[in-house]
Design goal:
427 residues, alpha/beta, 7-stranded mixed beta sheet, 10 helices, binds flavin-adenine dinucleotide
Length: 427
């Protein structure tokens, strides 16, 4: 039945890494992708259609993302260090402050909350899930965790801002551990997360995915959304509407929320089905804003709603500044509306003149259905790599459930290579 040795479904970083590893091991690979482009949540395109590429999906890699760094070098791309944070401002009571997150009367309570978060983050890093206050750090929502901290509003606001770039989901749904794990990069300090977003790929992460796929020599089928996967004794059939593709084995390189669209025959075991049905809740928005009157290197956090995190990331070619901004996709927020974005920027950068903005709506995107992985509190096991071992001739690869660096590009590469390795014996 085989038209290829292995079919890889999904041309994101995980699918690209799987295709490359399989091809290097001598397998004939067919790569089937729903979109008309490769890269998935790595999406590099010019700002509003003009100029150099910008990252509309993921962007930053850390110093310990060794597989990605090796791939960047192997495929002839380079790295650009992130602009240093040269100016840190906090929005408090509608006014910008440069002297810290908390008002003088709140500084002690603020520092106490920071120390508690740091202690919990370090516990979690050591694999200890219960803190000294008897809280289970992996089972508690971010909202409950903050409520129990009993910290000043300003402290809560600043944690909420860092949440938009870590836990990135409904405060009442997503596990506090998503935030604490990111705090643990820098001795437990939320403020330190950005220190480790050290580089972006030039010209773009999407280009890396494309080059990896080209190097694999895989037969690439674009604009073909897969709807079903069926296993037979000697192989798999992958269907996309009324078209069928056969192979000896298959890598499903789809994110957790994307697997909802796939019908498996035979059905997947209950633990996988439950994880797919629940999905993950990653739902930040990421905006690129072009503005005048803002110095690159300025980092501003907001007051618990709207745009909560904004970093003046670099100068654009025309001398204006590109600000990257995050908030949560919630009803009150309207990241697609220029007037709303202008209102938000006016609070965070009072001297700025907004020229335009651009973004991609990942939550509404049918082939993403969310941003980066955010585990619902109490259901982290569904996202554990142990739950995503192969089923017969089908292996699963996604950053969402990678055994290491889940949620990052690095996790996608690790998961893709793991899945390819698992199929070498039967393909
Ligand atoms: C806004 C944003 C910011 C982020 N920031 C960072 C960051 O700074 N650093 C970092 O490391 N990571 C970041 N991430 C996360 C990173 O982008 C992802 O972890 C990674 O790209 C996921 O790769 P993947 O291959 O596992 O999944 P995906 O990239 O989602 O790949 C899945 C592929 O499958 C395709 N597909 C979906 N459904 C079907 C179907 N039915 N049939 C066929 N194909 C299908 C999709 O189109 C896609 O190409 C960010 C993500 C977002 C959205």
């Amino acid at each position: 039945m085989a038209q290829a040795d292995v079919i890889v479904v999904g041309a994101g970083l995980a699918g690209a890494a799987a295709a490359l590893k399989l091809a290097k091991a001598g397998r004939r690979v067919k790569l089937i992708e729903a979109r008309e482009r490769c890269g998935g949540r790595a999406f590099s395109k010019p700002y509003r259609g003009e100029g150099p590429l910008l990252e509309y999906g993921g962007a930053w890699i850390t110093p310990w993302h060794h597989r990605l760094r090796a791939l960047v070098a192997e495929h002839g791309l380079t790295l650009r260090p992130r602009h240093e944070v040269t100016n840190r401002l906090w929005l408090r009571g509608g006014v910008l402050h440069a002297d810290g997150a908390a008002a003088p009367q709140d500084v002690t309570a603020h520092e106490r909350a920071i120390a508690r978060v740091a202690a919990d983050a370090i516990l979690l890093k050591k694999g200890i899930t219960d803190n000294e206050r008897g809280e289970r750090l992996t089972g508690i929502t971010f909202r409950d965790y903050l409520d129990r901290l009993q910290c000043p509003k300003a402290t809560r606001d600043v944690f909420s801002a860092w949440w938009t770039v870590s836990g990135n989901g409904d405060h009442g749904l997503i596990a506090a551990s998503e935030f604490l794990a990111s705090c643990s990069y820098d001795n437990g300090l939320a403020e330190g997360m950005i220190r480790f977003w050290s580089d972006t790929v030039v010209p773009g992460m999407g280009v890396l995915a494309q080059r990896m796929i080209e190097a694999s020599g895989a037969e690439l089928v674009l604009s073909e959304p897969v709807t079903g996967v069926a296993q037979a004794n000697d192989g798999v059939w992958v269907s996309a509407g009324d078209r069928r593709h056969g192979a000896r084995a298959c890598v499903m390189a789809l994110g957790l929320n994307q697997l909802k669209a796939i019908h498996f025959t035979p059905a997947l075991p209950p633990a996988k089905q439950e994880a797919i049905a629940r999905g993950h809740g990653g739902c930040s928005f990421k905006l690129w804003i072009r503005a005048e009157g803002v110095s690159p290197g300025t980092l501003v956090t907001g007051s618990g709603s709207g745009i909560e995190f904004a970093f003046a990331e670099r100068r654009a070619d025309d001398g204006s500044t590109l600000i990257v901004a995050f908030g949560l996709m919630q009803e009150a927020n309207r990241p697609g509306e220029p007037s709303w974005v202008k209102e938000q920027v006016a609070m965070l950068f009072p001297n700025a003149r907004v020229l335009s903005h651009d973004w991609h709506d990942w939550v509404d995107d049918p082939f993403a259905r969310g941003t980066w992985v955010a585990a619902p509190a109490g259901h982290e096991a569904g996202l554990d790599a142990a739950n995503w071992q192969p089923e017969g001739r089908i292996a699963f690869a996604s950053s969402d459930h990678a055994r290491e660096q889940a949620g990052w590009f690095e996790g996608a590469v690790i998961a893709g290579e793991d899945a390819a390795g698992a199929l070498l014996g039967i393909s």
